[in-house]
Amino acid sequence: MAARYSLGVDLGGTKIMAAVVDVATGAIAGSDRKRTRAERGAAFLLERLGDVIDGALAEAKVKPSELAGIGIGAAGQVDRAGGVLISAPNLAYDTANLPLADALRERYQVPVALGNDVEVAAFGELHFGAGRGCDNFLCVFIGTGIGGGIVIDGQLYRGATGTAGEIGHIVVDAGGRHCGCGHRGCLEAYASRTAITRTLLGELQRGRPSVLRELLSKGPEPGPGSAAIRSGLIAQAVAAGDELVLTTLDEAAEYLSLGLASAVNLLNPRRVILGGGLIEAVDRFFTEVARKTRQAALPVPAEHVEIVRAGLGDFSGVVGAAILGASASRPGAA
Questions:
Q1: By C-alpha distance, which of 145, 144, 67 is closest to 104?
Q2: Distance from the first to the final alpha carbon of the chain
Q3: Confidence of residue 23 (pLDDT cuts 50, 70, 90)
Q4: Total of domains in the chain
Q5: How far from 142 is each of 98, 188, 221, CA to CA, in Å?
Q6: Rounded to 10 degrees, what is the CA torsion of 64, 40, 140, 161?
């Protein structure tokens, strides 16, 4: 009898989340999450992965032997066949060519499959989220970076080298800001939560007034070199009408809409699914991105595209990764 559960891992630059998922329904049986702490290196990252997986298994009361498989969605370029993380600008400095699948396969003795993080999130949305019943859509998640997954005729489109969907590296300002990928002017350098954080912290250091000063003083929040101010704090600042935060978010929405409009013009999707903490937490940000995307895109595709939030919210990645992991156990699975 086929195993009922699979385990999905969403490995991002800010957090690692794992969940035991009922692959027939998409229901979460148990989950755990921790901050990635990417600066501590690859060895720490692998140990952290194990800790989060163990936490999810414990909450679900499921043993590794009861899993159909483990799937990982990693924030970076991946070798799916070899289960290797090739490069990840938003993860640890020494994670290049990291054999993630082998490490987890050895530890848990179950089949393991690896994919890009937003690619597997799109997979989750296709099966159980906002992509159900829609054969052509673009899924974009805004977090530490910005990633995309493309579904065409009900299938994930990966491109000639398996790297399709990197919308975060569309150039929106030629010769502009440095990006973590090594190039300049990428969308990710202007509209990711990392970019928004850098702008906000830079303005605070210059003495700009903001309610963020008080909010940041109440808890362990990031300093100048950190990757993220929590989305919840940004949402509080928006609710308070904070001018700095509103201006910064509107600027990020402008850049994000340029990238999305270019993708809408190129792919002509029926639906654009947006996810990530800021999209979930800040209604104004989502609304402005949707409005400006339609303004910037060509009239015909703009009129017919639906722009919606991810249906699975924070669980898109782990659900999609779990489905990927379950497929790894089947003979002949891709």
A1: 67
A2: 21
A3: very high
A4: 2
A5: 24, 9, 20
A6: -80
pLDDT tens digits, residue range 33-53? 999 887 888 889 999 999 999
Residue type, 127: H
Same domain, residue pair 170 and 257: yes
Beta strand pairing call for 112-116 and 84-87 = unpaired
Residue recorded with tokens 């690619």:
119
118-154 pLDDT, tens digit each? 899 999 999 999 999 999 999 999 988 999 999 999 9
Place of tokens 């899993």: 67
Structure tokens at 65: 């032997």
Are 55 and 20 contacting, i.e. CB atoms less than 8 angstroms apart?
A: no
d(CA 279, CA 283) in angstroms, rounded, equals 7
Q: Tokens 């969605």 map to which residue?
A: 73
Number of alpha carbons in the 13 Å side-chain half-sphere of residue 195:
26
* DSSP per-residue string spanning 184-240: BSBTHHHHSHHHHHHHHHHHHHTT---THHHHHHTS----TT-S---HHHHHHHHHT
- Domain limits at 96? 5-123+315-328
- Does a structural domain hold residue 297? yes
CB 114 within 8 A of CB 249: no
Phi, psi angle pair for 34, to nearest 5°:
-150, 160
